[in-house]
Fold:
Amino acid sequence: MTRLRATITGVGGYVPEYRLTNDELSQMVDTSDEWIMTRIGIKERRILKGKGNGTSDLGVEAVKELLEKTRTEPDEIDMVICPTVTPDMQFPATANIISDKAGIQNAFSYDLNAGCSGFLYGLSTASKFIESGQYKKVIVVGADKMSSIVDYQDRATCPIFGDGAGAVLLEPTEEDHGVMDEILQVNGAGRKHLHQKAGGSVKPASHETVDAREHYIYQEGQQVFKAAVARMADVSIEMMERNNISPDQLNWLVPHQANMRIIEATARRMGIDREQVMINIQRYGNTTAATLPLCLWEWEEKLRKGDNLILATFGAGFTWGSIYVKWGYDGAKQN
Structure:
């Protein structure tokens, strides 16, 4: 019996127009272009401006482009998953709002929170619904307005993050491509090193929490860096080994865009060249759940049917993982 797989049939993306450069950031906090480039590798990041604009406004633009490129009607979509850590509001789900704004009315939708690993977790979840035969068209839209939880008085975190969204359409195939394998893991003890202190049920919002600036990202950089380098590399190497993929057979590593040094260290340990790695951190920064689909969006024209891709990530939780994707179409024909 032929196995049903979930394959990516299209990619959409969106980043806001406003560019927050290192020079401008250095006027807001004690930092410099040299400091940021040396330690993180980010030159600028996109920021969503405008009162009342939230994560759904990023996500819906990516979804609309995706639908247009794949010539898919909104009513054809069966399901929408939105990985995010910056929902428009606690409820309803941002995926519900994106569905409404995109005219998607015949699908059920929900949010998924796995930190920067959210897109991989969402891709895994969506693929299972496709593989079961229950659904034919599922959208995963990773979107985050990170500027809404960044403390622009904290030089350790404010240079890292930006806003953006990326979306993929998954459909069933009986061909030998699509989501081929996955390794997803978590160590909840890592939460103490990367989290948001207030705003949840443990510590609801109050005058005290706002005054203490506890609604922003809290990160212990050194601990997160060490864990990210080890976990992303280990899980990517494991994926190559168990699928018999040699460095020269890997067309693309699609790594989470958190820190240039983490990306380079992961590539070195995998034994691959920089030319095999999708990197756009210098232009967009860390857009959390959007980094991986934004890479696919930017590199889509270079992708060819049958290309071997390893998507790898690490995020708050701690969460991390790797998914092996055999690409399903010639990207140049999609644009």
Summary: The chain has two domains: 5-176, 180-333.
